[in-house]
Amino acid sequence: MTGRKIAVIDDDPTTLEVVAHCLEGEGYQVLTMSHGRGACEWVARERPDLLILDVVLPFVDGLEICRDVRAKSVVPILMLSARTEEIDKLVGLSVGADDYVTKPFSPREL
């Protein structure tokens, strides 16, 4: 899996740490960001193989980032959010996410 790059945008430091640790243990290169400001440009510049994205972020929310990234890229997007209602999942998928996982989550599930 060497060379596979995953970008993770989440404002919770613990979530970033757990996700990065889990994915790095599987051989992925993990890039992290803790807010939405400049996220679309960052994703375009880094060109990850997967984007894991929280919905609730400072400055720019994950739904807007998802919509913008999807308009310019086919990168797979996984929403990782504490919003667990069915409508939240449907909205995430409707703006371009490929999957939606709710917090708390198991690293094995991810």
Structure summary:
With 110 residues, this protein is an alpha/beta fold.
Structure report:
With 110 residues, this protein is an alpha/beta fold. It is built from four helices and five strands. Strands 2-1-3-4-5 form a five-stranded parallel sheet, with helices on both faces. Helix 4 (86-94) links the parallel strand 4 and strand 5. Helix 2 packs across helix 3. The longest helix has 13 residues, at 13-25. The protein starts with a strand and ends in an 8-residue tail after the last strand. The mean pLDDT is 94.
Structural class: alpha/beta
* N- to C-terminal distance: 16 Å
Overall 3D form:
globular
Percent of residues in beta strands:
15-25%
Please write out the topology:
Elements (H helix, E strand, L loop, with lengths): L4 E5 L3 H13 L3 E5 L5 H8 L3 E4 L8 H11 L4 E5 L4 H9 L4 E4 L8
Parallel strand pairs: 1-2, 1-3, 3-4, 4-5
Helix pairs in contact: 2-3
